[in-house]
Design goal:
It is built from four helices and six strands; from the N terminus they run αααββββαββ. It is an alpha+beta fold. A six-stranded antiparallel beta sheet has the order 1-2-3-4-6-5, with helices on one face. A hairpin with a 3-residue loop joins β2 and β3. α1 runs antiparallel to α2. It is rod-shaped, with a radius of gyration of 27 Å.
């Protein structure tokens, strides 16, 4: 019979906890006290689980990619292969995009270079990045920037070079 009581108590705790989590944080304690009907032991158990849940969720508002650090900052004039960085044009969760120019006297061309940020250079992400490069290389459409080439920077960050679109 003790097992049934424990199961019933757990069911009560679980139901109250789940309902409390659906409420705004400032209203949770009041709801728990009301739902527990004066059972202070039950109130303490549910409140302690709410506190654990709240601690576990802290920081999850921040996307995981933001925890890896900022995208790389490449100074104007930095060379990546035959290209010279002019300026940054955008940044996001996976890295940054730079306007660059071909700078090897072979020919003149303005390009965009997308560089992965440190921490995103895991085997799985790099494989995905390479797949993205291959997909872009196979796409031929007037509304899709053309991919020219790809590689890794001197410090090992994967990149790809594509058509620059103003």
């Amino acid at each position: 019979m003790g097992v049934d009581l424990d199961a019933k108590r757990w069911t009560s705790i679980n139901e109250i906890l789940l309902e409390a989590l659906e409420r705004d944080p400032e209203h949770r304690d009041a709801y728990v006290r009301e739902a527990c009907g004066g059972d202070e032991d039950l109130v303490r158990e549910v409140i302690s689980l709410l506190e654990v849940d709240t601690e576990a969720l802290e920081g999850l508002e921040t996307p995981a990619v933001d925890l890896l650090g900022p995208p790389p900052t490449l100074e104007p004039g930095r060379r990546i292969g035959p290209y010279r960085v002019v300026r940054e044009v955008g940044r996001g969760g996976m890295g940054a995009v730079y306007l660059a120019v071909r700078d090897d006297d072979a020919y003149d061309r303005r390009v965009a270079i997308k560089v992965l940020k440190r921490g995103m250079d895991t085997e799985q992400i790099v494989r995905r990045f390479r797949t993205e490069r291959q997909i872009l290389a196979n796409l031929q459409h007037p509304n899709i920037a053309e991919l020219f080439e790809g590689g890794s920077t001197d410090d090992g960050l994967p990149y790809f070079v594509m058509e620059y679109v103003e």
